[in-house]
């Protein structure tokens, strides 16, 4: 199983973003560097959700924001490690639409359930496979600071 390593401040920023955009989905990117068994995230880039047809249960990162994310990663000497979004009033598990719209094989996809405006569970999934035809999500362990959290699982206590 791969491991996504998040500093506590990054973990809290992701969850806070979901609370601020509730009842709509939030979205953004994770910047970091690869490790032997996953990703070490160093920074988050919050983006707007450009879905106007159904922002409460769909998200889209605008193409211009993807260019800016890539430029920011280059500036910080990091890589795009993955993406995150929230599921307002739904579990922190991937949907068929999440899988269909995920195209960055080898990247982590973090989902936070936001229940009645409050971040609940946060899970991570690694997009694996060799092509669009055989891509799949595999559960990923989240390590926050020094604490391991199996994904999907209960959340660590906040410090």
Question: How far is the N terminus from the C terminus?
Answer: 26 Å
**CATH superfamily grouping:** Cytidine Deaminase, domain 2
Number of contiguous helices = 3
pLDDT < 50 stretches = 152-159
Mean pLDDT: 91
CATH structural fold name? Cytidine Deaminase, domain 2
Helix content: 10-25%
Largest sheet: 7 strands, mixed, barrel
Architecture per CATH nomenclature, i.e. the level-2 architecture: 3-Layer(aba) Sandwich
- DSSP strand content: 35-45%
Number of strands: 8
The general outline is: globular
Number of domains: 1
Structural class based on helices, strands and sheet pairing: alpha/beta
Helix-strand pattern: EHEEHEHEEEE
- Tell me the Rg in angstroms: 14 Å
Strand arrangement, major sheet: 1-3-2-4-5-6-7
Q: Which CATH class? A: Alpha Beta
What features would you describe in this structure?
With 159 residues, this protein is α/β, with parallel strands linked by helices. The chain has one domain: Cytidine Deaminase, domain 2 (3-Layer(aba) Sandwich). Helix content is 21%, strand content 40%. The protein has a seven-stranded mixed beta barrel with strand order 1-3-2-4-5-6-7. Strand 2 (27-35) and strand 3 form a beta hairpin. The longest helix is centred in the N-terminal third of the chain and has 14 residues, at 8-21. The chain is globular, with a radius of gyration of 14 Å. The two termini are 26 Å apart. Mean pLDDT is 91; it is low at 152-159.
